[in-house]
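Section: protein folds

Sequence with per-residue tokens
===
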Amino acid sequence: MAITIGSGLPEAGQPSRSTRYQFILITLLSLNFGIVFFDRNALSFLMPFIQPQLKLSNTQVGMLVSALSFTWALAAFGIGKLSDSLGSRKLLLILSTVAFSLCSFLTGIAGSFALLLGARLLMGVAEGGIAPISHAMVAAEVSPERRGLAQGITQNFGSNLLGSFVAPVLLIAFATHYGWRAAFFLTGVPGLITSILMWFMLDEPQQAHASHERQQKKAKLGDVLRDGNVLICATLSMLLVSYLVVCWVFMPLYLTQARHIAPDSMSWLMGVLGISATIGSFAVSYLSDRIGRRPVMIAMPFVGVILPLSALYFDGSLWLLAVLFFIGWGLNGILPLLMATVPSESVDTRLVATALGLCMGTGEILGGVLAPSLAGMAADHLGLAAPLWIMVGLTVLAGFCALGLRETAPARLRAAAQHA
């Protein structure tokens, strides 16, 4: 029985990158994606300051997050496909980084809901293409045996260390002393720095050139849409992005307004999520390289039920609540698998960024756009506990959906081939 490993494998005769360059590549891409999420999550963490000053309803809060997710989704698919067509990943990545940094400054000067909405729409356009391009670069330059770990670090390490841990602690402290507008001015600087570093330290991926030079052998978008793994990953992305975004937007409000937890304590509880996902970027991805993608992606959504239920019902110390938050947020570790690793191992190498953009874009446009708006309306009508119950339902659905995945981990496929 022939068992093939997906598209992420290096092509015959393709020179491999040095270990040093691979380390630099993953470090810079992870740092850059971390800054993306630092900027993206800043609005949610600062919402307890922004909402009363601009007199925003919970529905408007959800709409602000939905707006960014909508344009993020369009950019994720459009720019990812463009990078496949042009064979130019590095330049598009740097231009996107500069653009989202400038959008942070625009958010800081917004004085009304309409202006804030416009700034977030622009930021989504700028940020959406960064993830599919980054993962396509990793798939082209890193060996298949380490792909899960490499893509886990690229997507989760920086984004959660900076976006989920450093962001709430630093931004809330900064906003307390200098105001929320100054905090947005602070978020715009790091992206400009990483864009300079990437310009001088990264090369155009080798597979991007190879893909561009083989126009006569172009793969078709329909090949992506016909792959069962891609469709399941897109569905999981929709469900779990909804879970993440609803948590980022409404958990700070629930903890401060319903549980009456002080803003500084809330910031540390939210920061625990960043620590959990940072560790998960190594642990969960590494585990999937060893035991397979499928069992990990089935189990972790059910673990995610712990987080909203503990926020709703646990009455013990904040330290123990933080431990439960840490465990529940472990599901974040499978996001790189469903958005990058499994799709890149399932489709033709020339359509990797397109497949990744489809999975990420579907999650953003259906999960990131609809979920926060619906959760906001539910919160206005049923109370702030409603978004947390939505989170519970999303994780249960995701766990059952993952049962349909086929295994793609190279180590597991080789073992299966040997026993066939």
About this structure: Residues 1-15, 208-217 have pLDDT under 50 and may be disordered.
